[in-house]
């Protein structure tokens, strides 16, 4: 069995000595005696691709993950031959390839070793399928740490673990359970204060072993395909992650409402039930932007149909909900019911769009509608057809978002829970079996869905969410972590999964708040919502078979906590939107695990719970029942307790007291946090001021605020507003400089400035060098100032 592959399996084959090499522009090919070719391509000074073949020639080069528009170009490239090795040098790294066995080592320019082959590339020929099982092993030093790999339900630091990538419908998964729904074969190594990344772009079932099988060896291998990986040099983890995200692609901005609160259940029906849920949110004044229809809205689970008994007039209903600020999101699964009367089935059959078995029959499997056939989304013509199917839902009925589920793909009542491996796929003109296409199937479905929703939502922005995904899926879709359970352990898992997704390029992710399977206690639900509002995607969802999971299913205290935290999320929308903008512009993850935030502080290397939301808010969930606080690590620097405004110096573990309606939250000293007023849904209110919470710091700090029309594409034409603030705190002075960019004029005209932690009493205020009068009373009693938004410098002095 492959899972037990011994790295030193006796049938393994290895490259022999290098007998020739050629250098062409950005690529260098090395040929061995036994027909191995290693092609090294320098994409950027810190991004190098290593591609191997054992056949003496390469097959067609094709990747679903790599974004064709990724940045490339290097400053320096020098290839040289030394006695024992060849050297490829860029302005960031030097790669040495040994002549005798093709083993590779990578150094920084100061001769520090970054990554070194142990056995290096080796392979086992596959008698059963042809091709190879391709393997790689790297030497690992003591103290090296590993991060990344998407949605794994285990500690953030993967040292000592073996993980498997095979998209799987893993209902009620457990801690450490493998494999899960998503496949992101990208990891980050951190050793001796230097980070690097490896992206093994291979869609076959892959494995990663981080010093589990052997203490000082890290390895990865795949059941087929090529040994084809990208090496990314940091040395900061920040650089590794942004480079990886640039390589596999960034999304466009979602509509701002998609960052609001979403409510879901399996399922809301009939219409009156959905309407009651909507009304209750408004009545209780708990903000909410989106409501979901799960599979029961359909006619016998046939995609793109409606059950007219439950929803007699979907267009009217969707419009009525929209009037009250609710966007309707509907589920669409990949299985198409085999039913001669069903138009979509007939059309796909006519066009020959379903996946086939090796010998010709269509792939048949049971899912919710009963026996189904499954579109081959790896065929571009199928994707185009699928996109077109959204016309009625989006343009006519007015649905605003689509939820893709079961796209691992999941099949019921079969032991492997998915397609048989002989199923054929087009793979965009590279025909193959399900062994190769399995892990990419969900992403191609979400991609087709995205193009459809986008086409018909235009000029508004689309919203798509998927359960299964492969690296790069972030270009098309958001995601959730699948069928979790209403337990405290799952709250712990969700916290780590979403952080891990964030540093794995797929930042727009959340968990089913409260847990999907089983029923949370009020306390657990409250603790979950307190974390969930700090996840980029924020949705309560439940299987619905254990009772209700709307906020009002719990007692008043929990309802109040839910309102308080959802309100806070709505206040923080400009902050959240700004971090999203940094994600789409620069690939910066929205949530930053502490190790990402400060890799040089070794205290962060094994931390799981705390993370930085955006750049300046430190969040630490409460993960145990009956808590009155918890111990947590405060990263280096100076922070303010959000609830008490007390300042703490970081770089140490502390105890933080919290009430039931609080979790530890800290704001970085010097930060300016923008806030909107609480709205029941995005765009509900017209408001005339943007609140800026300014946290005093002795020294300098930068803060930015990105805004635009909150939907549509005008932002791509420069119609955005980008504020960049610099705060400088001195003993008796605070200077705030504001620089503006962009052509979008925000609706508000002034800032309400809350001064927090000011160590002096305000004496004078100058705006753009002119002293202004101010309301000393409000400032002293309530701590705020009102300032016209058109300023470039605000100078506060004290005594
Ligand atoms: O077999 O559509 O993960 O969110 O509510 C279960 C019903 C199918 C699994 C999804 C879940 C969804 C449920 N689906």
UniProtKB/TrEMBL annotation:
Glycoside hydrolase family 31 N-terminal domain boundaries: 38-209
Domain DUF5110, residue spans: 689-757
Alphabetical keyword list: Glycosidase, Hydrolase
GO terms, biological process: carbohydrate metabolic process
Superkingdom: Bacteria
Boundaries of every Glycosyl hydrolase family 31 C-terminal domain copy: 587-673
All copies of domain Glycoside hydrolase family 31 TIM barrel, residue ranges: 251-579
Pfam family, one: Gal_mutarotas_2
Any one Gene Ontology molecular-function term assigned to this protein's record: hydrolase activity, hydrolyzing O-glycosyl compounds
Family per similarity comment: Belongs to the glycosyl hydrolase 31 family.
Full protein name: Glycosyl hydrolase
Organism from which the protein derives: Flavobacterium fryxellicola
């Amino acid at each position: 069995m492959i899972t037990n592959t011994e790295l030193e399996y006796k049938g393994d084959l290895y490259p022999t000595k290098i007998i020739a090499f050629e250098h062409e522009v950005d690529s260098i090919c090395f040929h061995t005696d036994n027909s191995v070719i290693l092609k090294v391509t320098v994409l950027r000074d810190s991004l190098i691709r290593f591609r191997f073949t054992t056949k003496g020639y390469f097959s067609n080069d094709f990747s679903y993950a790599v974004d064709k528009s990724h940045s490339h170009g290097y400053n320096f490239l020098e290839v040289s031959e030394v006695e024992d090795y060849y050297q490829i040098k860029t302005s960031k790294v030097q790669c040495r390839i040994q002549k005798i066995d093709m083993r590779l080592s990578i150094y920084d320019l100061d001769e520090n070793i970054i990554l070194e082959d142990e056995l290096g590339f080796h392979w086992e020929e596959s008698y059963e399928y042809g091709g190879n099982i391709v393997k790689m092993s790297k030497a690992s030093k003591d103290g090296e740490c590993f991060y990344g790999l998407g949605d794994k339900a285990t500690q953030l630091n993967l040292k000592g673990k073996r993980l498997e990538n095979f998209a799987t419908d893993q209902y009620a998964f457990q801690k450490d359970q493998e494999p899960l729904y998503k496949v992101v074969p990208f990891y980050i190594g951190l050793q001796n204060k230097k980070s690097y990344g490896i992206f093994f772009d291979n869609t076959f079932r892959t494995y990663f072993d981080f010093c589990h099988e052997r203490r000082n060896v890290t390895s990865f291998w795949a059941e087929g395909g090529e040994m084809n990986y990208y090496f990314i040099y940091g040395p900061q983890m920040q650089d590794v992650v942004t480079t990886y995200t640039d390589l596999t692609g960034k999304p466009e901005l979602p509509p701002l409402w998609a960052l609001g609160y979403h409510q879901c259940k399996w399922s809301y029906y009939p219409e009156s039930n959905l309407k009651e849920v909507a009304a209750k949110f408004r009545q209780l004044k708990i903000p909410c932007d989106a409501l979901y229809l799960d599979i029961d809205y359909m006619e016998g689970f046939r995609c793109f149909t409606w059950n007219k008994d439950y929803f007699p007039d979907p267009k009217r209903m969707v419009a009525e909900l929209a009037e009250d600020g609710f966007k309707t999101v509907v589920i669409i699964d990949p299985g198409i019911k085999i039913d001669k009367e069903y138009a979509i089935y007939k059309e796909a059959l006519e066009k020959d769009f379903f996946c086939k078995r090796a010998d010709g029959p269509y792939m048949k499997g049971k899912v919710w509608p009963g026996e189904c056939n499954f579109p081959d989304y790896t065929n571009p013509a199928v994707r185009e057809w699928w996109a077109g199917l959204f016309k009625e839902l989006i343009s006519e009925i007015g649905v605003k978002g689509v939820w893709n589920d079961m796209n691992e793909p999941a099949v019921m009542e079969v032991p492997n829970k998915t397609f048989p491996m002989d199923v054929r796929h087009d793979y965009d003109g590279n025909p193959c079996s399900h062994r190769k296409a399995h892990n990419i199937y969900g992403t191609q479905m979400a991609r087709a869905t995205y193009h459809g929703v986008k086409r018909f939502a235009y000029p508004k922005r689309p919203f798509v969410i998927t359960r299964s995904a492969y690296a790069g899926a972030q270009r098309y879709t958001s995601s959730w972590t699948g069928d979790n359970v209403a337990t405290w352990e799952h709250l712990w898992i969700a916290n780590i999964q979403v952080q891990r997704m964030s540093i794995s390029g797929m930042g727009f992710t959340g968990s089913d708040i409260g847990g999907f399977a089983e029923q949370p206690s009020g306390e657990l639900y409250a603790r979950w919502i307190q974390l969930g509002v700090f996840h980029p995607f924020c949705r309560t969802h439940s299987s619905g078979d254990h009772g209700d999971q709307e906020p009002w299913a719990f007692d008043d205290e929990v309802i109040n906590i839910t309102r308080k935290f959802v309100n806070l999320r709505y206040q923080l929308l400009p902050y959240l939107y700004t971090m999203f903008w940094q994600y789409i512009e620069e690939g910066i993850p929205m949530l930053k695990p502490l190790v990402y935030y400060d890799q040089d502080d070794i205290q962060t290397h094994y931390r799981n719970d705390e993370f930085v939301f955006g750049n300046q808010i430190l969040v630490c969930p409460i993960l145990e029942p009956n808590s009155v606080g918890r111990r947590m690590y405060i990263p280096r620097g100076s922070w303010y307790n959000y609830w008490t405004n007390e300042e703490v110096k970081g770089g140490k573990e502390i105890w933080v007291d919290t009430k039931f309606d609080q979790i530890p939250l800290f704001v970085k000293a010097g930060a300016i946090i923008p806030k909107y007023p609480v709205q029941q849904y995005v765009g509900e209110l017209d408001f005339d001021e943007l609140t800026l919470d300014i946290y005093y710091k002795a020294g300098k700090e930068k803060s930015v605020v990105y805004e635009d029309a909150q939907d549509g594409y005008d932002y791509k034409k420069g119609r955005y507003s980008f504020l960049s603030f610099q705060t400088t705190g001195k003993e008796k002075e605070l200077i705030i400089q504001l620089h503006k960019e962009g052509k979008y004029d925000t609706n508000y005209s002034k800032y309400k400035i809350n001064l927090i932690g000011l160590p002096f009493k305000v004496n004078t205020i100058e705006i753009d060098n002119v002293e202004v009068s101010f309301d000393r009373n409000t400032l002293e009693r309530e701590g705020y100032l009102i300032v016209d938004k058109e300023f470039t410098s605000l100078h506060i002095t004290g005594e």
